[in-house]
Amino acid sequence: MERNDRWIGRVVIVGGGTAGWMTAAALSQSLGRHVALTLVESDMIATIGVGEATIPPIRAFHDLAGINEAEFIRETFATFKLGIEFRDWSRPNTRYFHPFGYYGTQKDLGYFLQYWLRLAERGRVADFSEFSLCALAARHNVMAEASPDPNHPLHLFSSAYHFDASLYARYLKSVSVARGVTHTLGDIVDADKDPVSGLVTALRLKSGETVEGDLFIDCSGLRGVLIDKAMGSPYEDWSKWLPMNRAVAMPCEGRMPLAPFTLSTARAFGWQWRIPLQHRVGNGIVYSSDFASDDEAADTLVANLEGKALASPNRIRFTTGRRQTAWAKNVVAIGLSSGFLEPLESTSIYLIQSSIQRLIKHFPDKTFAAVNIEAYNRAAAAEIETVRDFLILHYHATERDESELWNYVRTMPIPDSLAHRIALFRERGQLNLAAEELFQSTSWLSVLMGQGIRPRTYMPTMAFQDDNLLAEGYARLERHLKATVARLPDHLAFLRAGGLIHPSLLAAAN
Ligand SMILES: Cc1cc2nc3c(=O)[nH]c(=O)nc-3n(C[C@H](O)[C@H](O)[C@H](O)COP(=O)(O)OP(=O)(O)OC[C@H]3O[C@@H](n4cnc5c(N)ncnc54)[C@H](O)[C@@H]3O)c2cc1C
Fold first, then answer.
1. Does the structure show a pLDDT above 80 at 195?
2. Distance from C-alpha of 412 to C-alpha of 21, rounded to nearest angstrom
3. Looking at residues 250-262, what average pLDDT do you find?
């Protein structure tokens, strides 16, 4: 490659949690031969280590980072995920499923719900959840690989993973170090800056050592060692919409069958997750200190474990929101240092992935052009704001009224962008989504309908359709999806057949 003083030659990643090692793995694959990569982490400050559920784009990240999918699954005791089951969210004793993939077929050109509303009004169609391959597969604990062939029944299939977050970071570390990433242990106590440009020039470690670089990626978690302390980028607090600020996590022994979905159960003061892995189940309660004490949350978690506890409670504090400028001068914040939206829809690891992809797209030279940085920051802000609205929807669209938390979120003012979206859907079942939004119609439709928001009517043009033809088409599709799912193997059998079980569990799985 042409060597020029303008090009970035040294990238320093601060922090060795999920964000730090994902960044190291992706950059070592895409830039590694041209750029010297160093990752500095403290061996005194623990990682968060509880991000265990993902969404389908993680597969694209693994392609970008050159990760061997089968090896990663085995090493992290991963299982497959087809979506999230929400229990008791709209009111006690209710449940709905937010699946990956699509409702209907691609032939309905995005009008699945509109046709369905027309037929439902006439009592001529099954519940809309019967038209999602992933929802049906999750209900029957079966698994498949999606087909790239648009005519194949599994073309509409889609999956992500649950994995052990600490093992994921460890696995990505082994991949990155093998590719030449320098791993330095040390506590960062300060950063040197150029007095004229304000660019960070080096990290100062407690040991007295310094680590120099051209570009610094702050993956130091909620501390924001560089983005907050060195660059002073303010944190925008979103607690008024997303009031959760505490979590308590505790793994327990697993149980069969191995569910291919995350379970989210609403509680009086928050919600509880259940994430099944090959060797254990991850559990936790997310709550707000305004509505519950730490002891109340931990007691509720312990009382609701489905197996024997495998560790003592791990308590975590956070504030929902985002860093106003995720990229300041030559410091880019990725991971929790750039913001956190609580784990309700498993979006944090995805936001790390998309930040890395965006950084590669906007990779700077040493001039650090302001307009390039601005473009990155605008895209980052737009992305996290649409995800924020989607999360607020889960809390706000509820009929629960038995506790202070639910009364607060049900009646709180919500962002205009979300209020408009709900109003349009309520009027005519329409969703005006931008193509770049992370959550598309399957997601919005599942949660809006699941939380009890029903459109008043459908688009007038639906009345011009032939109802008999539509009803026959939907009935045929329903039979076809059921027949497809009936042929699929059980989740555990699928892992076993693919050689995806961790070697230490093979005897038990056979
Ligand atoms: C309760 C909860 C549940 C979650 N569940 C999910 C989920 O299901 N799905 C999902 O996608 N995401 C989830 N997340 C988010 C996910 O855990 C994080 O996005 C992910 O762990 C990234 O963390 P991180 O690497 O940014 O920070 P951390 O894991 O906190 O790592 C920070 C690193 O910085 C280092 N460091 C800090 N200060 C210094 C210093 N001064 N000097 C040197 N090193 C330093 C630390 O040693 C550590 O290595 C969850 C988060 C929480 C809180």
1. yes
2. 38
3. 95
Which tens digits make up the pLDDT trace of 78-103? Answer: 999 999 999 999 999 999 999 999 99
* Residue 170 confidence (pLDDT) above 70: yes
- Burial annotation 463-502 (CB, 10 A radius, 16+ → b, else e): eeeeeeebbebbeebbeebeebbeebebbbebbbeeebbb
Q: 0.90 exceeded by the pTM?
A: yes
Residue closest via CA to ligand 1's atom 27 equals 221
Q: Give tens-digit pLDDT for 403-452.
A: 999 999 999 999 999 999 999 999 999 998 999 999 999 999 999 999 99
What residues contact 264, with CB distance under 8 A and at least 6 apart? 84, 85, 86, 87, 89, 271, 272, 273, 344
Q: Is 81 a catalytic residue?
A: yes
Q: Is the pLDDT of residue 56 over 80?
A: yes
SS3 472: helix
SS percent in the chain: helix, strand, coil, step 5: 40, 20, 40
Substitution site in 38, 48, 294 for ligand 1 pocket (most atoms within 8 Å of beta carbon): 48
* Cβ of 313 less than 6 Å from ligand 1: no
**Does 253 score more than 80 pLDDT?**
yes
> For the chain, which domains are there?
9-238+322-510 (3.50.50.60), 246-317 (no CATH)
Edge to edge, the sheet with strand 235-237 lists 235-237, 321-323, 339-340
For residue 252, the 8-state DSSP code is B
Q: 193 to each of 210, 323, 385, how far by Cα in Å?
A: 12, 21, 32
Rg (CA), the chain: 24
Count other Cβ atoms within 10 Å, centred on residue 425.
21
